[in-house]
Design brief:
By secondary structure, the protein is mostly helical. About 65% of the residues lie in helices and about 5% in strands. It has 32 helices and 7 strands.
Length: about 725
Amino acid sequence: MKRAKRALILSATAAVASGFTSSSRRYASAPSSPVVSSRSSSFVSSTVSPDEVVDTVPLTSNPSLNLTPEGYGFSSTIDRILSSQKGTGYYSAKSTDSVVDVMSGINDSESNSDVALVFDADDDSLLGIFTDADYIRLATERAATRSEEESATFMAAPIVNFVTPAESLICVDGENTASQAVAIMTTNNVRHTVIVDECGPDFTYAGPGSKVEGVISMQSLLSVIQGDERLSYEKLSKKFPGLSDKPIEQMREEMKSRANSLANNEETAKKDIIRTVTAALGVGSVVLFASHNSWLSSHAELTMIGIFVLGYIGIIFEEVFEFNKAAVALLMSTGLWVTYADFYGGSTGLASDGVLDQLKDQLAEVSDICFFLLAASAIVEVVDAHQGFKVVTNLITTKSKKGLFWVIGFLTFFLSAILNNLTVTIVMVSLLRKLIPSDDDRRLFGAMVVVAANAGGVWTPIGDVTTTMLWINNQLSTIPTVTQLLLPSVVCLVASLAFLVNQVEEDSSLAESTLPPPSPLAPRGQVVFGAGIASLLAVPVFSELTGLPPYLAMLTGLGAMWTLTDIIHMDEEEEEMKVPAALSKLDTSGILFFLGILMSIGVLDKSGLLKDLAVFLNENLPSQDIIATVIGIASSLIDNVPLVAATMGMYDLADYGTDDKLWQLIALCAGTGGSILVIGSASGVALMGLEKVDFLWYAKKVSVGAAVGYFAGIATYLAQSQFLNALSGGVSP
């Protein structure tokens, strides 16, 4: 039986080599070797027995017509194949190594490997091989688990539990040829074979006495074989010039035909049109700017508006154009600043000192937010790495998705009143990743968090940046802001959530969530959680006491967390629990998107275009209530900070005193109006980066609900104002 199997493999060796050689000569003459089915397990003609093949079938049907010389192509030795690849072809692992460590080792290995050989931790004997097939088997078993904790045990388990055992390995030695290795691997349906100094019977592993020299894959084998045959064919083409005409030309025509067939569909045509238009716009813009065309100087305002509109279209239709929104935002920002600096207001073609100062000021303002976002995200990531959110998730026991929707909404609302809404959004989205297993559900919950955070930030001076601006400039004071904006903010939240909750479908996903059952948080986790929350809560206190900007307080908190985790994990090799690992996980493209958007809005503000918009509204709208409402709607598209800043400059504090209805209504509208579109607030932009929410999805699923809450909040404030005026005997404006 063993002799028959070995004969079978050797006969397959001849057939494989013959089949490849015949294929390479298909344009010259028909093969004289027996016809062999590529799907046959034996590769042997049905008219010849295995024993006969071993004795009578040569490497090819005619060795004199071999495409490659002896020792090359299919006759290459395994030693030559191994030396041609970088490294040994495998990652060396110990039996005690965990699955996740071995997978990391394979990915980081310099041995050009995609498999691991597992050796006994005590005597270094070979125990087995871990390949992609073994990983698929592991993943299949892991998918059947019912909890995150049980699933994690698979990744932490010893790798030896999941290997193909050594006694099942297929081996070759250095003297075997490439054709033999191909036949052996094909016959045994494997993609890798272990190279040893001496094989056992039927190409099996002989045991600890057999020295492992490397691992080769089918890809490595064919790469060398095809490279040899290509070089040999090129030499033959030079010797026989007519040889290259038909095969090469036919192959080129076939490639052209295939390319034409692939391009002949609507999707490819759409992409080609987009690429052509984009290329034309890009080249045209560069030429226009480089030539310092006089048209730009006389139409600078129109050019800036056009760049802004085109940029927002690119961001809105990101999924259609397949352009990363961060790249579009950065290009939009650059185009706007170049136009403003070189062509706006009679510029001479070079940025003036005044424009450079404005650019520095704007970058300083935007950097505040970007550094704040970076530091807050890193703190949240460190707390999450220590499972700090168990403190919250242990308290959430509901299995109703609609119930959870309301709980998260109100929790976000009140947290954003004491923290800023950007920080709360980051924290709550991280929490949702623990609670909500479905991506679609998590996006809807994340959008709800944006609405709740923006509503909750309105009614306290430290909750939202626009309220803080009005508070710092004495347009608002603390007590009236809290007492008169709390009810409208709550109504805005409830109305929006009541509309959005109808999209939540009850199912068993929460019961089947990977969230582990409630369990006590480890002392280290408690310390890190407490320090993280303290760092976030200390931001407004730090800013109030020192007068320094909030981002510096957040960076200070990050520094404290960094030092704390270094102390806790001192002398530990594990880096996943420290700040550098948290920083490596941050969404850099999201932060750059944020930078591009705010720099673009900033130049519109510096140029006076936003001020012109505010003046236009003031001159053409009949009442201040409508002006505030429109400003809120505009803030869903344009950042509310420059809009509110422009409004503050339009109305004198002497005419509209502290806590005037105008200022309170502007705070309410600018804060809650940013929820109508995802790009209208810092929270929404952060959600785009954290959960990959795109503009069109948000507009379709959330915008109507956010608008319902927005107008409900305004109506409540106006009714409340009328009621309070009636109580005090005053006259309503």
